[in-house]
Amino acid sequence: MADVKHTQWPQLGEMTVEQMNAWGAAEHAARMQDLTDRTPEGLARAQANAEARRKAIGASRSAAATMVSDASRARRRAEMSGAARATEGSAT
To answer: Rounded to an integer, what distance in angstroms lies between the CA atom of residue 32 and that of residue 84?
Structure first.
């Protein structure tokens, strides 16, 4: 079953870059939630859910994977930047 939060997204061709980044972040969170069940059935369900969500916006597997990886990369960069600022602040 597709996550309700993903039913509000426009089709990929109509998305702005900001919407693509937001979809990628939401999809990353949904995938992490889906992957909590590590049984074969749970993994199959997670794959089906991801497939349904990407089809709902008309994205190819490649486009969906790119949006998820870009959002994940941006999140990690922000976390690293925040950690670096915190370290700089404590060094004084």
So the answer is: 26
